Amino acid sequence: QGEEIDVIWSHTENEDWGEDGGSELSYSLTEYGGEDIQLRFRSAGGSTYNINYWEIYNIAIMASLDDDLAAIGIACDVEPIVGLSVPIDITVKNVGLNTQNDYTVSLNNIDGLLVDSIQSDVALEPDEEAVFTLSWTPDSGGIYDFYGEVLLDGDDNDSNNQTELLTLEVLNQYDITLLDFIVEDYLNVGEEAEFSLHVQNSGSNTISAAELTIVLMNEDEEFLDYFSPFIGFLQPGEDVFYELYYTPETVGEITFIGGVIYQNDQNPDDNMSEPTTIAVFAPNTSLLDIGPSDSWNPMPFNFNSSHSYTQMIYLDSELMTTGFIDWLGFVYDFSE
């Protein structure tokens, strides 16, 4: 105020400071209690060039209360795994004027349910902080959210008692996943068809392939083909393709389910494919995909009926084959 100037922070020219997007500065104004003061940000020297490209996003003056603990951080430095204890660090800071040595630090899930807590007698002087390690043991894989909290009897400010949310993804120790079930577009009676199953070790532990059974089933979950790899290991995150085979015996439709059976799987819900129905045609039948229009063969087709979806079509003698209409779009005049 007036001609009296106190420098509470300074930065030396040509030295790096702060982070892109801004950094926070925090300083105590306790010594100015009861006074009227002004805060300013200025550049010293022969030119104002030194202050170019500096941006001040906000200036806030916060009251220092007698009793005020704040939960300012929550972190986990390990990869959470089902069945193993997970250490979670919560940082508490004394932003009040009085020393505190009797308070509770807790870990809570997003629903507010208590996970772990500690009654602390660690003395925190004003502006001092401490890290408290609490623990949680997950019983299933998935995504979980937590926050830390500090509780002090007589706290003058409850608005800073909770941290931001911490999101953790928990891995199963043993988890095999069927990523994809690759099938043929159609099958022919008497012709062996190949089915490919894309399998991944989604857990945290190495798995012996001999513990897996790769299966191909119908809609009644009757085995059509299966085998165990017998040798090899799947490392965490590793994926592999396995092939199974089936030869249909009759014309019609068959619904297939592909999957992998693993007795120790902690998440078996992702082991089986959705049912896939495939048409089975007579031997030596080929399907013709007519379209799109820019790739049509202008060779004329002779239809012996005009309304049946499964209508047989007879092609020009150059092709010498028959088939079923899979898709039909009209761009020519078929009225003759």
Topology:
Layout: E1 69-75, E2 86-94, E3 103-109, E4 114-120, E5 129-136, E6 142-151, E7 166-170, E8 176-182, E9 187-188, E10 193-201, E11 207-208, E12 212-218, E13 223-227, E14 233-234, E15 239-246, E16 252-262, E17 276-281, E18 302-303, E19 312-314, E20 322-324
Parallel strand pairs: 9-17
Antiparallel strand pairs: 1-2, 2-5, 3-4, 3-6, 6-7, 8-10, 10-15, 11-14, 12-13, 12-16, 16-17, 18-19, 19-20
Task: Please outline what is shown here.
The protein has 336 residues and is mainly β. The chain is 0% helix and 36% strand. The chain has strands at 69-75, 86-94, 103-109, 114-120, 129-136, 142-151, 166-170, 176-182, 187-188, 193-201, 207-208, 212-218, 223-227, 233-234, 239-246, 252-262, 276-281, 302-303, 312-314, 322-324.
Name some characteristics of this structure.
0% helix, four-stranded antiparallel beta sheet, single chain, 336 residues
Report on this model:
With 336 residues, this protein is an all-beta fold. The chain is built from no helices and 20 strands. The protein has strands spanning 69-75, 86-94, 103-109, 114-120, 129-136, 142-151, 166-170, 176-182, 187-188, 193-201, 207-208, 212-218, 223-227, 233-234, 239-246, 252-262, 276-281, 302-303, 312-314, 322-324. The chain has a five-stranded mixed beta sheet with strand order 9-17-16-12-13, with no helix packed on it. β12 and β13 form a beta hairpin. The N and C termini lie far apart (101 Å). 17% of the residues are buried.
Q: Are there runs of 5+ residues with pLDDT below 50, and where?
A: 290-336
- Helix count equals 0
The tally of strands reads: 20
Secondary-structure element sequence?
Answer: EEEEEEEEEEEEEEEEEEEE
Main sheet summary: 5 strands, mixed
Q: Beta-strand percentage?
A: 35-45%
Overall radius of gyration: 35 Å
C-alpha end-to-end distance:
101 Å
Overall 3D form: elongated
